[in-house]
Design brief:
This protein is mainly β. It contains two helices and 17 strands. The structure holds 5-phosphoarabinonic acid and nickel (II) ion. 5-phosphoarabinonic acid binds next to strand 5 and strand 14.
Length: 189
Amino acid sequence: MLTEIDFPITLTLDPENGILDPCPQITPRYLSDLKMMFKDQQVVDEILKEENRLIYEIRYYPFRTSKSDMALAVTRIFPGSIGGEYHMTKGHKHERDDQPEVYYCVKGEGFLLLDTLEGEFQAIPWRAGTITHIPPMWAHRVINTGTDLLVFIGVFHLSAGHDYEIVAQKGFSYRVYAVDGKPALIRQT
Ligand code: PA5
Ligand code: NI
């Protein structure tokens, strides 16, 4: 009987702080976890001598009603920069080449970077309310260029998979720096 199972699954997100309830899995990402993602390795090492800064957190909820179900993740990126480069997610491509994703910016401002890692690139300006569809085969990374928390939701297929290695090897075509207090996209050679 439907009344005996937890159906449908309903979650609550606090849009001000990005806290999801219920939430079975929280993954913190510290500077040491994305050390290689920032350009200025000397600055990274200097900061790590003092503190292992929390850059962002992922709150994950898998809807496991079938093998073809979805998952939801809420990411909270704290404001700040490392060697002038704004705080950002590691960035990844989906392991499966047929898996898209939908991102919804709940709070804050920044950019969504989309990169095929084979020559095509787009930077989508983000603010609260922006929804972006990420096509399969595009690496994606979110940058927090604001002075407050950036919160966004990602919805994707349980089987999509996350490939971080390819981003670590090839890198995104552009980095986002604070230049005179404003975000600037700097092309990488
Ligand atoms: O599935 C997604 O694309 C997101 O939920 C990300 O995993 C999340 O935003 C954190 O980014 P990354 O996985 O690149 O560390
Ligand atoms: Ni993804």
